[in-house]
Amino acid sequence: MTEILPHVNDEVLPAEYELKQPEPDHCPGPESEMAGKSDACGGCANKDICESLPKGPDPDIPLITDNMSGIEHKILVLSGKGGVGKSTFAAMLSWALSADEDLQVGAMDLDICGPSLPHMLGCVNETIHESNSGWTPVYVADNLATMSIQYMLPEDDSAIIWRGSKKNLLIKKFLKDVDWNKLDYLVIDTPPGTSDEHISINKYMKESGIDGALVVTTPQEVALLDVRKEIDFCKKAGITILGLVENMSGFVCPNCKGESQIFKATTGGGKALCEELGIRFLGSVPLDPRIGKSCDMGESFLDNYPDSPASSAVLNVVEALRDAVGDL
Amino acid sequence: MEEQGIGVPAASLERIKHIILILSGKGGVGKSSVTTQTALTLCSMGFKVGVLDIDLTGPSLPRMFGLENKSIYQGPKGWQPVKVETNSAGSLSVISLGFLLGDRGNSVIWRGPKKTSMIKQFISDVAWGELDYLLIDTPPGTSDEHISIAEELRYSKPDGGIVVTTPQSVATADVRKEINFCRKVDLKILGIIENMSGFICPHCAECTNIFSSGGGKKLSEQFSVPYLGNIPIDPKFVEMIENQASSEKTLVEMYKESSLCPIFQEIMKKLREQDIKTRTMEKHD
Fold it and tell me: Which chain B positions have a beta carbon within 8 Å of A258's beta carbon?
């Protein structure tokens, strides 16, 4: 059931394992050093599986740290919820930073099953080249490099039917084998949820150091509910939260200029959540149909409509973010 | 690969007539909101409906059905799904990981294997009883949850999947991947629904296509699968969900008055016209 990619074939992937029952209460974790040996393992049906998994510190981590050493700031774009605008924001952040010719910017797409970043940056049909120094990222501009699984797909529509363990390996390759060279910023776009991709990026980059996370939300409580979980994850994983941005807040009708709250903030929206959890609120970006259109065409909304209220809102957030990582 | 009985359908699903999955490669397109509305519509038509939420790291259904803080209990025949008060001929019950979490803000930081075993339990251990429809709401993507549910249901003959998309091409690009996933695992696609298809300004009644339009229809033509309809953005639906606790009426009754209800009735009609055989033996009918 797996798709074979030109660069990532089955041979280099670790054996997948499937547990026979959920981990018990005091499980040390199937990948930990104590796997299969702790007190809780005694009566566990998974004991043999866990015991046979490779142990010890991950030999790839020093290699990742080395490859990441030329990157000044690393920012994760996160949200527990899907479709709130993580990729849109990651793309706009990349465009905005690279507008400064003195900055070298990288954008990395960790969403393996639903990569959107290449669409938004207008480089969906590009492919990756391999050289002595590793995989060469796709350059959208002289100072904007990107990496995504999209560049490796045999066809645009190919489904990536991968379990987590396989996704982890590709993420590792992105960090270890991509020739990022020197970057001032690496913007990392993530999939929704709090699972393999999130656990892995944090684990693999622990020593390289992540500056922090930008959390994206929409105003309605159903979205905030998942975003709370993501914030809880960041706290547990020790990831600094640089701030939260509320996307799709309010819509101005192009016909009558009347404003509507499409995703109504019945519980106070992103701002109230920030106050409750003690997080910096970076601002809200209104819903503008032209943002979606620019993304569909792979163009920079900020360049196309520099005078729109949404553009200035985005630029304010970018400014606040640079300030939060100590760049300004 | 399959340890539990090769070729045998799951016993816990024995008395369920139809199983429908709600899928989308993309997040935030409205899978849970389509699942909720499908359940409410079927329930108001008098059917017994069960809803299974396999979005483990971002479960939305407890909030959608106004069931936050409810818990699942272990009964003699297995886990008891949480009942929704309906005040109609039909019935509605829900299973979600959200019911097993202590605090609503707690994150579920699970890697694949743990998610897989949870889904296995959701399929084998829930005492659904007799149902006309079991709707399965999925997370975005084509990964652990999707592979696991496809494997678990392999011999249980689900009807198929409803694919939800929003109109813009960034979304349909991910949805195409999901359709290819369905084809790979032999899951029939019952049809495509285009959600967030236009917004009618409450001030001037002008319709703006915030996320453009027509993407769903195009997708259905390209892949030759039925097009079930498009649903506009209605802020009142979100409001209804958020304010349901303060209403005297049940959610099923409130939804009947929603402007979206006739659209969903039409979609259900199209679905039922496909005349999919019930999974159960005749004697159960």
Answer: 201-204
- Give the pLDDT band (50/70/90) at residue A22: low
Whole-angstrom distance between the N-terminal and C-terminal Cα of chain B? 34
Q: Which residues of chain B have a CB within 8 Å of the CB of A289?
A: 208-212
CA distance A183 to chain B (A): 27
DSSP letters spanning A4-30: PPSSS-GGGSPPP---SS---TT---T
Q: Is A80 annotated as a binding residue?
A: yes
pLDDT digits (tens, 9 = 90+) for A111-160: 999 999 999 999 999 999 888 888 999 999 999 999 999 999 988 899 99
Count interface pairs A-B at CB distance under 8 A.
235
CA angle B67, A266, B42 (to 5 degrees): 40
Interface predicted TM-score (ipTM): 0.91
- CA angle in degrees (0–180, nearest 5) for B212-A147-A297: 20
| CA–CA dist A67, A172 (Å, integer) | 11
In three state form, how does the secondary structure of B137-184 look? Answer: ECCCCCCHHHHHHHHHCCCCCCCEEEEEECCCHHHHHHHHHHHHHHHH
Per CATH, the architecture of B11-262 is what?
A: 3-Layer(aba) Sandwich (3.40)
Domains of chain A (ranges, CATH numbers): 26-56 (no CATH), 60-324 (3.40.50.300)
Q: Is A258 annotated in some ligand binding site?
A: no
Residues of A with Cβ-Cβ distance to B26 under 8 angstroms:
82-83, 114
**Model confidence, pTM:** 0.91
- Pick among A225, A259, A293 to test the B interface (most B CBs inside 10 A): A225
Interchain contact, A193 vs B57, CB within 8 Å: yes
**Do the Cβ atoms of A203 and A164 come closer than 8 Å?**
no
Give the three-class secondary structure for B31: helix
Q: Name which of A222, A233, A234, A257 to mutate to probe chain B: the one with the most chain B Cβ atoms within 10 A of its Cβ.
A: A222
B233 touching A (Cβ < 8 Å): yes
- The 10s digit of each residue's pLDDT in B40-89 is 999 999 999 999 999 999 999 999 999 999 999 999 999 999 999 998 88
Structure token digits, residue A314: 């985005």
